[in-house]
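$ fold --in a.seq
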Amino acid sequence: MEVSKATIQKAVAKNIISEQQGSALYHFLKEESRHTPSFTFTHILYYLGGLIAIGAMTLFMNLGWEQFGGAGIIFISMLYAGVGLKLANSFARKRLIIPAGICATFVVCLTPLAIYGAQQWLGLWPDDNAVYRQFHHRIEWLWLYMELGTLITGIGVAWRYKYPFLVMPIAVTLWYISMDAVMLIIDQDDMWNSHTWEFRAQVSMYFGIFMTFLAFWVDIRVRTTADYAFWLYFFGVLAFWGGLTSQHSDSELSKFFYFCINLAMIGIGALLIRKVFVVLGAIGGCLYLGHLASNVFKDSWLFPIALTAIGLGVVFLGIWWQKNEVKITRKARNIMPKPLQELLDKKLG
């Protein structure tokens, strides 16, 4: 729960704490929040500026850079990386943690461009029709060298600086690898036929499961520090859910099983306090209900009534849960492993 100045003033008004203690507590929490990402105008400016700079060297890169040649691209990448590291170190000394993390992340995001330039310079680039600007929207096996280099660089920089935002390029790179590595196995001329699409969806799903478990392991290991698992959860669950949803089946039982998995995701998200599970699980549940309305019960006037009853039942379930949440949560936590108890205690306060 976010503690605001108004909340502290209410505690002072009820004589829970003194006015002096309330003032001291507010200033302490305000100072602590400077290092925690939040929806404040200052942090919005931090991330907006950082993402513009990162996007300039990644998503929005144009063909103009190709005229510099491989050696020129390496030189400019190294120059940008030097500036990024200098800024990261300067911000770190001033205890500006979020800008320092953004600048360090910018350096990691330059890695694929530098590797691309090195391959061009050394004559090792395998496809003259592929250029760097296609890296983020075209699935090809030839990006793997750039991705593996980025992964190594990202882990090294994250180990050195230990900023949670540095996990973002690592998670994105792992997601890219899961898509591009498949191209080494399948026939690229048949990449869009139904069997190949099914195989790619399954790879995405299983890789997403692996990445989600990795996120959970990280969450447990660093439960007493910053949130290093956020981006791993985000892209892991996205890869799993995307692969699961992309699979085709004519079996109503399989579709119902898909619905149950999405409900389980909502439960897991509520347990771990991770919104990505809940949001994607809710979307998946709505897709299944849409399928029932459009195909299975399209001529039934009872279906909307039954669905309304189910919806109201869920509302009443929420009321019952609110009344019994403390008792149920306490009993559930007592049978959980101690590291998981500590993780939930930190998230729930």
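$ fold --in b.seq
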Amino acid sequence: MARDDPSTMPAPTPDMLIAGMTGRARTAARSLAATSCERKADALHRAAAEIRIATDEICAANADDMASAEAQGLSVAMLDRLRLDPARLSAAADGIEAVAALADPVGQVIDSRDRPNGLRLERVRVPIGVIGIIYESRPNVTADAAALCVMAGNAVLLRGGSEALASNRAIHAAFVRGLVSVGVPADSVQLVPIADRAAVGAMLTAEGAIDLVIPRGGKSLVARVQAEARVPVLAHLDGINHVYVDASADPAMAEAIVVNAKMRRTGVCGAMETLLIDRDYPDTVALVERLLAAGCAVRGDATARAKVSGVTLADDADWDTEYLDAIASVAVVDGVEGAIAHIARHGSHHTDAIVAADAIVADRFLAAVDSAIVLWNASTQFADGGEFGLGGEIGIATGRLHARGPVALEGLTTYKWVGRGTGQVRG
């Protein structure tokens, strides 16, 4: 009868859609939790292979997304995040394979103790369960997040931005083909198929159905998630990252690090946004001019502007801005304590670096700066799970609970206590 014909039935509401997806995800999560490391790794290798095979198909879908995004006037930084090409897809497949090669955290005994009564207690890593990931622009997140969640034994609901819907669908389809080829449930990785923002709201209020939500995107997305969520959130806030160049820094090293930190890729969250220069550093002019020569617009405080032509005057908002573009703010500060104070006022607890030859000064910076990642004599662009040897990341967590910095396999697990007794009863 016509009433049984799916084509005549109304489309499910976002709430109904998410409820159905989470139900299937819970079933898949139970299966994944019992899946061996070898099978999970095999599934990821197959998923990577399917993405390589589908390169032309995925790039064609991405070209459609790019054309639409350009017509809508998306920023240069957003377009860079959205763009895929064979090299980027190959890197995404490499990342999946790198995750497959990692040690499985599930079942790892974190600590153990034997009680005087003979009861043995162990704290053991287990999957979180069902994870929801809400992200913008970067379609490679579809592959990265799926790989990490599967390897950590979690089912995942992926909700990408509308600007990348075709790209995400193509990557997701290839990834799932790899999973099912070795018997891992297709529902382990589900992509929310609609661009309706109400689907995000449905995910955020899915208490008991989604165990953890992870937002990856701009300030407005993260703010919405934190304001509306009724499930736990692992937040990634702005990357207002600083490089402080101490008076003791080697000038050649300082110039190389600063230019790389800002200009290697301006649209990533690990890019330097503010350069802090010790008042006693002897080569301020050469350092800032090197940044200008690399094509970066520089907005400086009064001291920096007086020293270097081509620097425009920064306003108060510049120190709190994540440009994600070829723009940097520059401030001259009174040594390491001045840098620490500036970062405390304006930083986002993401990634901050010091360039210094003086180990005592460097240790003071590393101890005092309260960021998820602090670096000595290295570019902030190393703020990446792959560069940390984690095989990829869900994001850089800037809060304090329950994970911090690049969130990879261990950050996607929780733990339970397992007790083994011989008949003990409590008196």
